[in-house]
Structure formats: C-alpha cells, structure tokens
Amino acid sequence: MASVYEELLERANARWAQLDKSDTPWIRVQGGTSGQAAGSDEVIAAVRSAVKTAGVTANVTSVSAIGLMYLEPIVDVKMPGAPRVLYGNVTPEFASEIVEKHVLSGQVITDKAFAYWGDRSSAPDGIPHIEDMPAFARQTRIVTRNFGTTDPHDLLHYVASGGYSALNRALHEQTPEGIVNEVKASGLRGRGGAAFPTGVKWSFLAPNKAPVKYVLCNCEEGDPGAFNDKGILENDPHTLVEGLIINGYATNSTHGYVFIRQGHEIPINATRKAIRDAYEAGLLGKNIMGSNFSFEMEVALTGDSYVAGEETALMEAIEGKRSTPRFKPPFPAAAGLWQKPTNINNVKTISYVPSIVSNSASWFKSTGTETSSGTAIVCLSGHIKRPGMYEIAMGMTVREVLEEIGGGVEGGNEIKALQTGGPLGGVLGAEAFDVQIDFDSMSKAGAILGSGGIIVGNEKTDVVDLIRNLIAFTQFESCGKCFPCRLGNTHMLEVLDRMCKNEGRAGDLQLIEKVGMNMKVGSLCGHGQLGFNPIASALKYFGDEFEERMSGSLAPAGSFDDGSMIMPTRTRP
Amino acid sequence: MTTASRETGEKLRERIRHAISSQQQPTVTVLSSLLAVQDLLHYIPDEAVEEVAAFSKTSINEVWSVASFYTNFRFTPPGNVTLDVCWGPSCHLMGAQNVLKAVQDELGLNEEATTEDGTVTLRYSTCLGACANAPVVAVDHHMRGRVTPVSAAQIAASLRKAPPSH
What we know:
Chain A is α/β, with parallel strands linked by helices.
C-alpha cells in the first residue's frame, strides 16, 4: 500500500503536469497584498475576461508574488514548449493585449517583457533570463523558493515542488531528538529580532513531559516597513505549516498556533486554507502520515496592538486578554500559554525548517556567515528604485543590497539614511552602509536586523522628522503597562514635535536622552527598553542635524509650513 | 451618527449571540468573540460587551478592558466604507502626510472620524503591509498603492458616492 505521502505526491505530480507540461497555455498572475496594492485584482479580472472573449483555452492562475514588487502587477505567460515570459507593471488594458498577442498569436511582446524563465536554449529574443537580472541573481532563495511559481492556495502545488517530503522524512526516519540536534547544528537563529539559537530554544521545551505543550508561530508583524512574515504566509503558507508540524514533532508538542493580526485578510485566508487542506490530506490531526504523532493547528487572531508581538503579550492575546507583557520568570518553556510549556518562533525561523530537514544542517550552514547561517529576507521600501522582498545570503553588505538588488536611490542623488529592523531598530547613516547584513555586525553598527525591513531615505530626508514619525508610532503603540514606556514615549514625542516646529528648548536633547535611559531600565519588555534606540542611533549618525535643528536656523520640519505632523490621538485607556 | 440606523434590542442580541457561538476556530476567547462581533457589525455595541461577558462567563469589566485595549475596535457604527490611510515611516518618506491632508480636506475632516453624511470613516493606519508600493491606502481592507494626494482625494471622493458595502 502506498504511503500517505506517496499518494499525495502522485496526485500533485499529475496536477502539476496538467498545468506545466500540457498543450494549454498557462497564464499566472502574481497576487499578494503588495500585488493588490499595485492593481493585480483588476489585472487578473482583465486576463480572465480577455481569455473568455478570445475564446482561447488557457489556464489562468493567481500565484504567489516573486518579490520584485516594483514590477507589480506581474503577468507570467507560459506557452506550450516555451519558457515562461514575465511582464511587469501590467495594466488591465495591457493584460488584454498580452492575451491577444502572446496567448492567441504566440507573439511575445518583447519590448514590454522584463524576463523569461526556463530553458536558455529556447530564449525569446531581446529578453534577459530572470537569473541575469541583478535583483534576482543576487538572491539565495530558500524560504522564498516557490515565490512567483506556485499557487499558495493549492496544497498540490506545494507538494509537487517538494513540499511535505521533509515532514514525511522527519516522521518516518528521524527522532525528535535527532531533529533538535540537526536544527542546533544548522546554526539557525531566531528571525524575530532576538536572534536566539532556535535548536537551543527547542531543547528547552522538548524534554518536558507535560501532556499538553504549545508551539506558537508569531506573525504579528506590526513593524512598519516589514512585510516578509505576512509575505511567507500569503505566498507559501504550507512552508510555514510544514515547519510548524516538524517543530511540534521535534519538541513533542500537541498544539500549534499561527498568530496573525486581524485585518490582513490575504495572509489570514491563505493560512487558514493551508491548515484546512493539511487536515484533509492527513498532514494534521491524529496519527499524521500514519505515524504515532498527532498535532493540532489553528490560526489565532489578535486585535491591533504592536506589543502583542512580544512573546508573553502574544500569549495573553491568544488567551483573549489585553496583550501586555508578563513578568519573566517563569519562562514560556516552563509556563507559557495557559501556563503550559510553550515555544514561540517567528514565521521566517520556522519556514527554514523543512529545507534544513530535507537538505541537512551542513547544507544550511554553507550559506551565510560563521555566526549567522542561512539567509535574511529583506524588505526594501522608501526612496529605492526597486522596492521589494528579497532573500539574500547573510554576509552581503547593506550597500550591495541597496545598489545591486535595490538599484540605488530613487528621487534623489544619494541615500542618506536607512531605518532598519522596525521602529525600535535604528537609523543608520552612510558610514554604516558597508556593514555586513548578519545579526552581530548589524547590532555592532547600532541597528538590529530584526524583522528585515530596510526603509531608505534620500538626501532630502529630514532625520528629525523621520524620528518624530517613529516615536509617534512607539508612543501610539505603548501598551501602557509600564509607566516609563507609556509616559516616556509621550514625553519624547512632545520634545521631538516642538523641535520640528522650531520651538525646541535648551537642554531638550539631554532631556530626551534622560527619558530614554529611564525607559530602558524601567520597562518590562523591548518596547520600552529599546524605545530610545532610534533616537540614540540617529544622534550617533546625524547628531549635527539635531544641533542644527535646535539652532532654529532651519525651516520647520515635515510636510507642512508649521512643522506639524498628522498622527493619531487615540491612547490606550 | 451615521445614516445607518442603529439596531437595538433582542434582534441585535440574537445576531451577536449567533456570531459568538458560530466561530469556526477551536479556541474561543473574549478577544476572538469581540473580533467576531466586529466582523459582523463593524463596531462593538454595549449589547455585545454584555453578550460576550455572558458567553465567556466573565464580567462586563473584563470584556470592556479587552475591547478598549485593541485600537481596531470601535464603539459607534462606522460609515458605509472605511478608508485607511497609512502614516508609517515608509509611507511617510513617500509623502503620506500630504496624502492624509488631501484626504482630510476632501472629506471635510481634521482627525480620524466619520464624514457628516455618514458615508466614509477615515482611519490612520500604522502600517498596511504593502510598504513596497507606498504610499498606501485601503478601502475596507482592499489595498491601493502608489497613491498621490490627488489620486487619494479622488478615491475618497468616489467613496462618498458609493453605496453601503455593509
């Protein structure tokens, strides 16, 4: 009798062959949150209607986004026997033209295609291979390997591209201890910000004999400028689901939760569907793939609260309470969700696990640096030519990412400042651009890699105004539990706001520094402890600009003549 | 107040009870129940706080403490559509302040609020998650990227004419 996995793989291969190897053209339209923002919903509707009007037989599929967001909406046409051809910045009108010319008449619209993908020997004239595009070539795609190619809502697409073979292998060939050791040996470190060794974290939970144990996956991702966690869930949710099941098996856990903020419908729906489909295929629930291992999984939604991304606050939110951080100890591995032993990992961290189990720890370690193995998934936004989501080997420098992948500055002459690692990360100046992207080098430079968000500011960026924006965020998002954070952020924002309006007072810089130090020592979680980080790093790289702002010689900062900024006024009661 | 008349009484409570008791996910909590109500009604009426407390066997105070904490919950009915405008740092650098100002002017508002005619609720968002296509706005969670002050004001204007989506 064929195993659960073999049967699934057979179905998947048949399904894939039907699409990829058939005599029918295959039109993929890339979706996702960012794609939607660029207009992909309208484009896929236009493709479908043009196909219908033309009376042509074609498979039209909404697929994951490849990460080249500056080219969105992206349409990918595969004619029988030919390589894929990708069109960027497609409008609904141009989508109809693609169907008429390329699909109906087999005529590639060369001047509007940005790349082809596939066999180089049958290259269409005048279009580069996707692997010759710097924004693609400089990437090392491990977690994002399927992005741009598969339908995130189709389990069989994932299986056809090798999915769930790691789980099959883990359950039938490896022991839980063996997997924990493999993850330890891989050098995988947490991608949520703290960079703690993942295998070590798992080994805290694994030996606990409690009958109910939880593994939580954190996709709160409230960081402005970061969209890679939601990106994984909406583009390849089964990578995360498979990783979390392996995480559960390795730690002898019984339940998994994927924690997402309400309102992000695209990743939420993709994850819920993936979990439902995994249950139906026997990949979740009792005796997974015929093994002795049983595991339940669900999506837990949080309301809007940035601090809910802190690990103990997250557990409060799953329990349905206000998401404020708990005192530690006890640590989650001893008493976490509902006081049961618990592990929490970031989405990206868990998403590496299937590849590590499939390919071995030493394979994973061969990418990256000595202390930061593997890749980083960076999100470029702001004043950059090619904003997007890119997976790069650890050890590339910030400058390489900005210039070779990002294509350099947009709307100006040079890059002046970078905001990295979320609002509690740092603001870096040009001196720091040669720093390597890895956990240790970044933190030495006064920033954190954190969520992987890199927001780029050109030479017109007013750093004091940018800092006011960041502190307005941290002020708004303080959960209010610890008063140094609650009042400190408010106080710092007041001072920055008056500085931007040229109403700064002598000693203001010293004042915010003092407030920041009080927040650091007097707050329970990172939100308060790191709250002064953005200012400290900005002072390090742009101290002169603060001095100049204080001198009153500049026009008021920000977008308006009076130096004001529009921001929310709600506070938590 | 909006043009939508505010439903009260036993019929409303019944709908709320149904929303709370028919949640699909296995883990049902005060927060998940409040989210279910907000999905249904787009706000949390006092009746919902009471019903969630009864269902969860906890106090009205406990439910209220959760509802008042998360900034997505609102306690009066919103307009026919909700327009989120992002003011996060990526959008900020790409001109979000001028987008916000243009939308405010178009809607005749100077803060997060609902237009007088009850058609559009304006919200400031800390991040909509489509930063690569900044500046971003969202119409009832549907993303619209690469907006300008002019195009955002046009979106806002078109929403005032749109029929209620909920």
